[in-house]
Prior knowledge:
By secondary structure, the protein is of the alpha+beta class. Among the domains are: about 35-120, no CATH class; about 145-215, no CATH class; about 225-295, no CATH class. Helices cover about 40% and strands about 15% of the residues. The protein is built from 10 helices and 10 strands. The protein has helices spanning about 25-35, 40-50, 55-60, 100-140, 145-165, 175-190, 190-200, 200-215, 260-265, 285-290; strands spanning about 1-5, 10-15, 60, 70-75, 80-85, 90-100, 225-230, 230-235, 240-245, 250-255. It has a 4-stranded mixed beta sheet. A 4-stranded antiparallel beta sheet has the order 7-8-9-10, with helices on one face. α5 runs antiparallel to α6, α6 crosses α7 and α6 (about 175-190) packs antiparallel against α8. The radius of gyration is 25 Å and the shape is flat.
Amino acid sequence: MKIKCEYCGGMFEDTLEKCPHCGAVNANIKRMADKTPQTMDDLYAWYAAHNLPPYETTRFFLGIDYKKPKAFGIYKDGENFIVYKNKADGTRAVRYKGTDEAYAVNEIYLKLKSEILNQKENNMARRSAGTRSAANSRSKGFNPGCSLMTIGYLFKGIFAMLAMGIVASDFWSLIPVIVVALIFLFIFLKKKDLYDKIKKLLWPALIIAMIISLSLLGDRTTPRYYNYDNDVIVGYGDDYYLYDYYDDDYMPLEDDYLPADFAVNPDYYETDDWDRSITNFEDSDYYSDNFGGYDSNSSSYYSYSSSDSDWSSWDSGSSWDSSDSWDSGSSDWDSDW
């Protein structure tokens, strides 16, 4: 059976590992390897196992040709599977119409996971705002610019970043912040009269120091892409990774194996002009396994057992907490998808 390439739009046999037109990996084969839902029945089971609210709440209608505004859905019409979005004004945008069930299921599946992430972030923001409001009401007389509390929290943040490896070998970049904090700490302990006069300068001084630290630290958490002799190398943090076209994944490059001219001047090979058919580093299986799981734009997910009883253990990050609320009003209902 011929399928449509997700990247160039060309048609090719679904048994091929890569598109013969552009070289992109056959997404259908990758989905089978990743054990993502392939059928409508898989999708129903996934939805139920993750304790999601009713369709009327999430506005995702599986197996239903829903006619009213503000809805995502998938249903089968004859031999075709149709994935759609009903916009706020009631007009329908068809995302996919065709016989490839796995492709259709994956389209609505990715959108549902993206919306779950959006709702979780909204819930976290609401809870955070409520916590701050409660804290403010309990501490009407608190002055954040005085005492050891501000400096204490600052040092806790620094140690937390060290523990998570965020600054790692770039610890020196935090020196401006540490110096400012130590100066104010010393004045607070030894010269309290002086501290009372200058405490209003604490936050401005810390902010300036943080700006300096960030400029020294640089952008270490955004992948940097390099084209070296037609190989794609990605820099992330202080490490480098090589893209494997056959496995459609990345592998770490030890310092000893870096090409000498690349190691001396990697900036020379940095580029935005690279093969867009390959998987982004943050969407790769390697990133998912080593740097923190699911990304809302990713097509790589954790593996799971095929039995229904194991659905809830797979991709637990999408499970819905009964204490959370789903506000479909925060969704984008004006775009085509």
